[in-house]
Amino acid sequence: MLIVDDDEITQFHASQLLLSIGRARMAYTGMDAIARVEESIAAGEPYDLILMDVVMPGLDGLTTVREIVKLFNDHRIPLEKRPKIVMLSSVDERDTQIDALYACGADHYLIKPLDGDELIKALAELGLVTPPL
Fold it and tell me: Do 126 and 108 contact (CB within 8 A), yes or no?
């Protein structure tokens, strides 16, 4: 998993919530995230999940996701082999959600602060974890 957020507390919280699911790598900027995705493609070890903050300095999350999707397209990675992308935002704006889910190519959108139950529910909907009983 790749957790992309400029806030270390959010990164730590997300990594702790995902600890039982697998190993997480961190990125603090959009450019860092793009580089990590490129490395994973080159190594043949793609991420299963990318958690992407919407608001970051430099490249924002929406632009970063567009660039990551472009990488997948350039490398002809089929949709079913691409990581699921969950956008994270502290702002609950419908326009941003629509842009994230339909224009950028994200798979889900969650509001911060990150709630563990909501995250697991989203990952279950995306087929990444077994839904809790």
Answer: yes
